[in-house]
Amino acid sequence: MILLHRGISYFVTAPIYYANSGPHLGHLYSSLIADAAHRWFKLKNPHQLTLFSSGTDEHGSKVENAALKAEKNVDVYCSEISSAYRELFSKFGIETTYFIRTVEARHHQSVQQCWEVLRKNNFIYKGKYSGWYCSADECFYNESDLCDDETKSCKITTTGHTVEWVVEENYLFKLSEFLPEIQHWLQTSGMSDDVIQPSQYLPFVINQLKQLSDVSISRDRQRLSWGIPVPDDCSQTIYVWFDALVNYLTVAGYPGQLCRWPPDCHIIGKDILKFHAILWPAMLLAANFPLPKQIFCHGHWLSDGVKMSKSLGNVVDPTLEAQKLTCEGLRYFLLRQGVPTSDGNYSTPLAISVLNDELANSIGNLINRTTSSRVLRGDRFTDFDDSVVNGPSIRQGIVGQQYDKMQFSNGINSIVTVVKKANAFVQHFSPWHLAKDKNANSLLDTVLHLAHQTLRTCGILLKPVVPNIADEMLNRLSVSSDESNYSDCAKAASKSRYFSGKPLNHQKDLILFPRISRFLENCQLSINREMMQDAFHSCSASCMELIVGELVNDVENNASTWNIGLGELTKLGMRQCYELGQMLGKRYIEQYPLFKSSILNEIYIRSSDTNRTLMSAASVMAGFVASDSYGNHGNYTLPNFVRSPAGWNPLPIHTVDYGTDNLLNMRYHWNKTANLFRKNFIEYDRFIKENPDNGAKLAYVANKSGFNNTLVKNMWILADVVKIEKEGSAEDWHSDQHKLPNWVTDEIYDWIQHTFKHWCKLVYQPDLLIQITAGDLIFEIVDRIHQKQLSMKQSQNTNSWIERIKFYSYSGHDINLLFLLYILGQYDNAATVEYEGYASCIVFEAWLTEENEIEIKVFLRRGPNSTEFQPIQVVGCPPIPSGCPLATFENRTRKFFPKPNKVDVDCCSSAMLPLTDRKLCALSMGDHFHYLWTSVAFDVSRS
């Protein structure tokens, strides 16, 4: 006999989620369906009490092992995981009336009481049980569930998890006695459509019934200690599924008086259907409880067509997605796109498209166009004349029927269809034009009234789906909570003037749902950003020797190949690069977080194999993923340097040998450019001869510095060294080892710097030198964006790694950055070239337009004292803030792409060169991009 007390009119449950890990998108989806069903019932029955339960399932060996792996006490671990689910529910407006934890004392009492009832009714017995046991799933499997291949007979067909044959003594439940009754319950005419929904899942359950017999419902406590002990037998632990299923009784009040039974609906994912449709009904029958009225089952969510897996790093974290889409936006998308009869495909670009089209453009546009001061003759609902025009109307009954079946996607589709018709209706009559015509007042009022009524009805019907957005809509129309129940929809649909003359809550610039930028950095597996970091100017001796040999870079190019000495990064230089990294982290990571499980696959850092560029890359990345910019987004493990600055965790740096790096080492093309340099040196010598004083100072400095006849060629070295030693801080370099020579007077110092600027003007401006030095780099940047675009349109093994990359960072010389700016049209040929300064950075951002085309935006951080990235107006491109279409950007930079050279062709075809070097050589000639990607992908595999 079941004792019930009056009051609860509706009882819906979401699953209790296993506490071996935090929440993911599938957990959120199950809970959203249950929450929407709960809200829908309350919308129809605002004065009736309801029970909506969910929670966390916290027992079992997987939970215990997860706590052990996290190096936490299992109680503490479970509390943290349970809190994560509570926080998820709170963020997404999932309003459970009972959140249960299976570690609660009340639940322990409920489980043990249920056990005793089943044992008293002679449905539990002790015996030996043998079968294929999967520790990953904590359950036994039938022979038919295993792989057919004999070599894989110890794996489950559906999951690939391994199983082992187990024979042990434990308690068994007489499931076999209830199988006929359960089958009758499921297949009785007129009942099957109600019990298992959607009905397509029913055949699976019937097939499972034919394969089952009595089941083990306890485990040896030595094998499973974290769980509820069997009453009067401390050697056994109650099976976690027996424990978990009883939660539905616990929340209803068991073992005391029940507030409502049976549940109106269990909402579950298809992976746990067998337990809810077979084991759970059998337990209830054995304990003399009525069976659930309905079990609603839904499919899973895939990530870009692939099953979500921690090992693949594609598990979607709903909290991170909400940072891009908002919580209401993600609610809407999952309920809008989720079809219970099949698996859903989650794609951030698709979500952005749906939200922009339906929430921002359709609904948001309609409410703004019809409630703005441009069209309203007052801040009140207008009257209407139904003889003037017939407007759009929504048949709320159709939406209600779909909601009753929990087919929320179909219901939302009906709403969106009507909203789009309403927008077309408004566009046709153009109330902003009617408002200017005094003779059109009646028509204007009618058009607005019909639009407002449509919005009001849609707002009410959206309350189960996006409650906050729906409230914003209704608030804009001054609809009180007492007038926003389902029964009030009829008032909006009728021809009565119930709302005519009522005040509108007119607000300026209401944005119901802000459009989401289709910035590729928003998109999972569709992110592309190029970063070019200047890493040159701080050249004095430094604390570099403390870290040499510990930097994580390619094994083949280890510390023994680095040029130690001249050009080492100073403490000041490291700090400036670290601050640059923090700026980048603040600009990007806080908005578009990396996936903590695959961070090493989402950033690719490229550097010449020389100390200052390596240390610059490490310093920038240390700031990029510093705790204050990324640490709040989750735990991750990165290499830690024993003697590096506190808190630094730089990412692995992929290097190319300094002598063969065609992208970042300007002297890679030295043989090609020798004649060009000689020509410019001749011009430089002419400059010296024009002023005898220059010649005298040149001879004096050449002799004092030791460069002698090579001073002209090495003027950049001398200028940098004396600048560091004259203007640098003693605490940033070893002043006892690097003192400014006495012969460098103020006059000589000024002459060196002036002469160096003139040297730069002569050497660094010609188009050919720009092409040779920076052409490879701009070619790679443009080509990789093409590859990124391709990877978004099709899935190919050859570019799958590109899909995962979000940030591609170069650490090169200031000359690389200087020449990129020249290519972008930032310097006039006649102007003296000025370096932007150490720790400068160019960022190339790829944006996706409404037409699914790529646009490029370029930003520059000018030197170590700059606190912002300034947009660059690329010559030949649309004015900022507009982006530059990729085709336009490519066409205007194409002339700088590397060209084939007869000598180099012979060199590259030589069998003496390693294959990867031949590919890089081919790239420098402008060969097909296949070479580039093969080479870079090879670097990735080595790391």
TrEMBL record:
It catalyses: tRNA(Met) + L-methionine + ATP = L-methionyl-tRNA(Met) + AMP + diphosphate. It comes from the Eukaryota. GO terms for cellular component: mitochondrion. Keywords: Aminoacyl-tRNA synthetase, ATP-binding, Ligase, Nucleotide-binding, Protein biosynthesis. It holds the Pfam family tRNA-synt_1g. One of its GO terms (biological process) is methionyl-tRNA aminoacylation. Residues 10-370 form the Methionyl/Leucyl tRNA synthetase domain. Its EC number is 6.1.1.10. InterPro entries: His_Pase_clade-2, His_PPase_superfam, Met-tRNA_synth, Met-tRNA_synth_2, Methionyl/Leucyl_tRNA_Synth, MetRS_core, Rossmann-like_a/b/a_fold, tRNAsynth_Ia_anticodon-bd. One of its GO terms (molecular function) is phosphatase activity. NCBIfam families: metG (TIGR00398). PANTHER family: METHIONINE--TRNA LIGASE, MITOCHONDRIAL (PTHR43326:SF1), METHIONYL-TRNA SYNTHETASE (PTHR43326). Belongs to the class-I aminoacyl-tRNA synthetase family. This is Methionine--tRNA ligase, mitochondrial. It comes from Trichinella nativa.
